[in-house]
Amino acid sequence: MQIIDATDTILGRLASYVAKNALKGEEIVIVNCEKAVISGNKDNILKEFKEKRDRGDRYKGPFYPRMPDRIVRRVIRGMLPYKNEKGKKALARVKTFIGVPDEYKNKEFINLNDIKKESLKDMKYVYLYEVSNYLGANIKV
């Protein structure tokens, strides 16, 4: 089982890593999902997520999550063949959490060093908790 700390990690790169390993059969737990980073212009990112959230009908969908752990799971789902049996099983092997649950507090976390904050020094980015708060969730960091 891999326990990944998503703090200051670019969301798309994290999701592709997790999707690939989940398809290989690994159990993956992602903690601190609210501290993941989306690279790009803040106004554009917030506008795009708001459009995704407002799209469709509130009764028929498509439904888009507000909470950061569910947004991360949805991004990972987009990188899996989730309508096939192997994709469903791979998505079932992925668990996402806001913060660090008690059962994982004393465990060893994997830091994906090649996609950490060092690469974000000169980039524009926004944290996932800011996006969630903009969408209407109440996340405190």
Provide tags for this entry.
single chain, alpha/beta, Ribosomal Protein L13p, Chain: A, two-stranded antiparallel ribbon, 5 helices, 12% strand
Map the helices and strands:
Blueprint: E1 2-5, H1 11-23, E2 28-31, E3 37-39, H2 42-54, H3 68-78, H4 85-92, E4 94-96, E5 125-127, H5 128-135
Parallel strand pairs: 1-2, 2-4
Antiparallel strand pairs: 3-5
How many domain units?
Answer: 1
- Specify the CATH architecture: Alpha-Beta Complex
**What do the pLDDT scores average to?**
89
Q: What fold name goes in the CATH topology slot?
A: Ribosomal Protein L13p, Chain: A
Ends apart, CA distance between termini: 26 Å
CA-based gyration radius: 15 Å
- Beta-strand content bin: 5-15%
Tell me the total number of β-strands.
Answer: 5
The portion of residues assigned to helices is: 25-40%
Low-confidence stretches: none
Q: Secondary-structure element sequence?
A: EHEEHHHEEH
What is the CATH class designation? Alpha Beta
- Distinct helical segment count: 5
Biggest sheet strand line-up: 1-2-4
Report on the biggest sheet.
3 strands, parallel
Can you tell me the CATH superfamily? Ribosomal protein L13
Q: What form results from the Cα inertia axes?
A: globular
The assigned structural class equals alpha/beta
